[in-house]
């Protein structure tokens, strides 16, 4: 998925990693094996990145890469531990079915849902539409987010042509934080790992987690049985799970001497 | 409409393929069970049930997913040797089979049957308990992501630094937006929660999962069933009770239903085999109708078994109060009060100290939902009892734990503003303006005595509205009735309604010595025409 840069560091551009090959998700089998914090962060990073790409415009190359990624992410051993497994599996099945579809149909669907409409798009993918009472596209919320990204040393990739409160940008930022968290656990930098977890929780509670359920409800209603409806269901289950999981992780880690 | 399910959503019905999986070790516990007899009985009775025995299922559930997929199961019932099992791994296996684990039913056949009774009785009781669980599994309505709460299956220690123990998930209630009326001011679930886990934000009820203990009080406090608590929905509880009381299931009589706290006793011990346990996360979630309805379905008695010692959730008063209400009601209709009892003599057969009147027992005669916590169901059950056991004179029962209420409107004080009707969550009070009249209707069979109407009444301090907790047989039978009627004044300019006459009189009285011309404008013209009128 090299062709979907979203957030970048300076001029370099932080590109989503390959979900196959060197970045394979490897989570121990079942719940009986202990789940390393590092591996948990890696899994969450992969899911956030996958979802971020899914809510971007479905260019032919991107769709092909997403379908290819489903082969790796369809690892039941890793995901069956979590309650978002069933909607996640439905999404992956649905996405693999897209191989049969013409990309142009998906593009039309994306445009119908997220881009056009007499009173704006059917399902606005921007946080401001849900959180800002004035629904200002360049209002308080995008400005807050831009500051947040900048504080993490990130800026919006110029090639994306999107606003900071687009669903994919927020999902990609969560993926970035998960990657940082994974690196902290890999280096056994305990305090750093906890600090990043706290940052993830704060971001989810203040931004993505506050509006995504409303967006998902809207999208599920507008695209029943479609790919984006399935994506909304899976992403909502995953984000709601993260909203519960992160406080649990932090509370537990605080209790460890 | 229920929200999205984790599993494939199907309505609970015979179409659901239920897999009943028994741990093979049960045969070795106590006097054991006639497992082949149980399997044969199910095969003959319910072809939609897939049956298997698995060696050491309690300890090693691996391979469960393969069997469930092979059988095409959509629901799962496990019959185990003990109450504790490999919960996390079972959830994973069930999920892998594409089934929502929150709909999983587990029966402790060891503690409740094999280790408690001789083999023939244990086998009959096992059939009944399994049939109850199959019925409950079929009635499972599905769940949503909001219904799961993660918890750690073991503690994290210094030694396990950076290694994380696995998770388990338990069910928590969720609010169904389509049914909830929090936006008009209803806060019944919020008031019912003893842990402050619920709050209303921007007209929506939000659950703080970290505070929720899954006690279920909120679910049964909502008269509109807008709170879904998977595993313990009224539909599931009713399906289980009906199945356990079905005289064609198992050869054990008499039977009683025993509502037991799941934090309490784990085995049947010295219980008479006729007591059929139904475990709840908190007994306080059981509304009085759950204690009364089984008596109309063939139960000889209903027992309530709290956990030993003090209730860890501090709900003794609620549980005792609801049982006392049922007992008073039973006494009023000439039935033994002991038909519903806390801590009944469990070593004796249910109904030993008195049985429900014979006419209460027609099997299957009670149509529709009998376990809904809404007031209409309670009213229906009450009227049914009063119909089959008519008292000498009409019953009026006031009780602090009555699930029904009676609203009285003082017509000379009420101004007909309609605020109470707009706020009432169960539509017991309905306000309407029709043909020049303001009408307030009250239906006693829909009132839960929630009191939401009291604080919104602008004339509340003057006693315009009064609420009693209890029921009045006559008013229940009467159904919806007009409790306030007042003519509405019309605009002399355009003919549009202004307000009920009594409201205008009240406004005038409050204005007192204000300019008389203002009074004329207010009482003769509607809001649209007032700005164009000049007082004479």
Which properties best describe this structure?
heterodimer, A: about 260 residues, 10 helices, 3 strands, about 0% strand, B: about 525 residues, Rossmann fold, Alpha-Beta Plaits, 4 domains, 4-stranded parallel beta sheet, about 20% strand, disordered N terminus
DSSP, total strands of chain A: 3
Mean pLDDT of chain B: 88
Number of helical runs of chain A? 10
Strand numbers in spatial order across the main sheet of chain B: 2-1-3-4
As for the number of domains of chain A, it is: 1
Greatest interface (CB-CB under 8 A), with counts per chain? A-B, 39 and 38 residues
Mean pLDDT of chain A: 81
Tell me the helix content of chain A. Answer: 55-70%
Compact description:
Chain A is mainly α. Chain A has a single domain (7-254), classed as Orthogonal Bundle (TorD-like), CATH 1.10.3480.
Report on this model:
The complex is a heterodimer of chains A (257) and B (536). Chain A is 62% helix and 2% strand. Chain A contains 10 helices and 3 strands. Chain A has helices spanning 37-54, 60-73, 76-79, 85-97, 103-115, 128-131, 140-151, 167-186, 190-222, 227-254, and strands at 7-8, 35-36, 155-156. In chain A, α2 (60-73) packs across α4 (85-97) and α9 (190-222) packs antiparallel against α10. Chain B has 536 residues and is α/β, with parallel strands linked by helices. In chain B, 28% of the residues lie in helices and 21% in strands. A 4-stranded parallel sheet of chain B has the order 2-1-3-4. In chain B, strands 13-12-14-15 form a 4-stranded parallel sheet. In chain B, α1 packs across α5. Chain B starts with 17 loop residues before the first strand and ends in a 6-residue tail after the last helix. The relative contact order of chain B is 0.08. At the A-B interface, β2, α1, α4 and α10 of A face α3, β5, β6 and β7 of B. β2 (35-36) of chain A pairs antiparallel with β6 (163-164) of chain B.
């Amino acid at each position: 998925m090299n062709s979907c840069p979203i957030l970048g560091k300076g001029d370099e551009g932080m590109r989503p990693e390959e979900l196959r090959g060197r970045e394979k998700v490897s989570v121990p089998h079942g719940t009986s094996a202990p789940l390393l914090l590092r591996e948990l962060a890696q899994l969450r990073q992969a899911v956030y990145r996958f979802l971020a790409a899914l809510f971007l415009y479905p260019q032919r190359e991107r769709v092909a890469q997403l379908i290819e990624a489903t082969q790796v992410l369809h690892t039941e051993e890793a995901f069956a531990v979590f309650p978002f497994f069933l909607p996640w599996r439905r999404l992956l099945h649905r996405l693999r079915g897209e191989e049969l579809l013409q990309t142009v149909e998906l593009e039309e669907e994306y445009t119908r849902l997220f881009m056009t409409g007499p009173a704006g798009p059917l399902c606005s993918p921007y946080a401001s539409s849900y959180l800002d009472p004035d629904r200002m596209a360049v209002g308080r919320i995008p400005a807050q987010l831009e500051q947040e990204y900048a504080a993490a040393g990130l800026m919006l990739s110029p090639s994306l042509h999107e606003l900071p409160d687009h669903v994919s940008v927020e999902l990609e930022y969560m993926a970035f934080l998960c990657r940082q968290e994974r690196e902290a656990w890999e280096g056994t930098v305990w305090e750093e790992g906890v600090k990043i977890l706290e940052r993830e929780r704060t971001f989810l509670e203040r931004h993505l987690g506050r509006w995504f359920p409303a967006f998902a409800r809207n999208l599920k209603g507008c695209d029943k049985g479609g790919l984006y409806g399935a994506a909304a269901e899976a992403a909502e289950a995953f984000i709601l799970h993260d909203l519960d999981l992160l406080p649990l992780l932090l509370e537990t880690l605080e209790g460890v001497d | 409409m229920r929200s999205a399910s984790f599993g494939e959503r199907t309505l609970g019905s015979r179409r659901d393929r239920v897999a009943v999986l028994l741990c093979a070790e049960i045969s070795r516990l106590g006097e054991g069970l006639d497992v082949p007899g149980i399997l044969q009985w199910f095969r003959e009775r319910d072809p939609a049930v897939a049956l298997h025995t698995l060696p050491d299922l309690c300890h090693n559930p691996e391979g469960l997913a393969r069997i469930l997929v092979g059988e095409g199961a959509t629901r799962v019932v496990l019959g185990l040797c003990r109450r504790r099992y490999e919960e996390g791994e079972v959830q994973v296996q069930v999920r892998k089979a594409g089934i929502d684990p929150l709909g999983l039913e587990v029966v402790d056949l060891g503690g409740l049957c094999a280790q408690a009774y001789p083999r023939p009785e244990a086998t009959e009781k096992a059939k009944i308990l399994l049939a109850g669980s199959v019925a409950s599994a079929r009635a499972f309505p599905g769940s949503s992501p909001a219904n799961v709460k993660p918890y750690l299956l073991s503690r994290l220690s210094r030694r396990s630094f950076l290694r994380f123990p696995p998770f388990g998930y338990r069910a928590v209630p969720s609010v169904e937006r389509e049914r909830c009326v929090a936006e008009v001011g209803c806060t019944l679930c919020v008031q019912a929660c003893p842990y402050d886990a619920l709050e209303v934000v921007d007209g929506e009820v939000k659950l703080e999962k970290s505070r929720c203990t899954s006690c279920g009080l909120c679910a049964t406090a909502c008269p509109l069933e807008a709170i879904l608590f998977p595993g313990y929905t009224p539909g599931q509880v009713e399906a289980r009770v009906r199945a356990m009381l079905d005289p064609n299931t198992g050869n054990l009589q008499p039977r009683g239903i025993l509502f037991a706290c799941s934090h309490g006793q784990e085995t049947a011990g010295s219980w008479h085999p006729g007591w059929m346990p139904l475990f709840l996360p908190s007994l306080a979630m059981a509304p009085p109708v759950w204690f009364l309805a089984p008596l109309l379905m063939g139960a000889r008695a209903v027992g309530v078994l709290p956990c030993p010692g003090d209730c860890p959730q501090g709900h003794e008063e609620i549980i005792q109060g609801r049982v006392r209400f049922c007992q008073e009601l039973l006494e009023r209709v000439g039935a033994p009060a002991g038909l519903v009892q806390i801590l009944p003599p469990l070593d004796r057969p249910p109904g030993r100290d008195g049985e429900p009147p014979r006419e209460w027992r027609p099997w299957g005669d009670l149509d529709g939902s009998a376990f809904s916590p809404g007031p209409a169901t309670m009213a229906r059950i009450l009227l049914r009892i009063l119909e089959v056991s008519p008292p000498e004179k009409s019953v009026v029962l006031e009780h602090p734990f009555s699930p029904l209420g009676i609203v009285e409107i003082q017509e000379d004080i009420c101004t007909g503003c309609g605020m109470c009707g707009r706020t009432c969550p169960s539509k017991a009070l309905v306000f309407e303006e029709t043909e020049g009249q303001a009408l307030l209707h009250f239906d006693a069979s829909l009132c839960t005595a929630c009191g939401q109407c009291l604080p919104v009444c602008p004339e509340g301090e003057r006693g315009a509205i009064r609420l009693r907790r209890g029921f009045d047989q006559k008013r229940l039978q009467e159904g919806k009735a007009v409790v306030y009627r007042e003519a509405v004044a019309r605009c002399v300019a355009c003919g549009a309604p202004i307000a009920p006459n009594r409201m205008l009189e009240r406004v005038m009285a409050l204005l007192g010595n204000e300019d008389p011309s203002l009074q004329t404008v207010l009482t003769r013209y509607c809001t649209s025409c007032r700005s164009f009128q000049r007082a004479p």
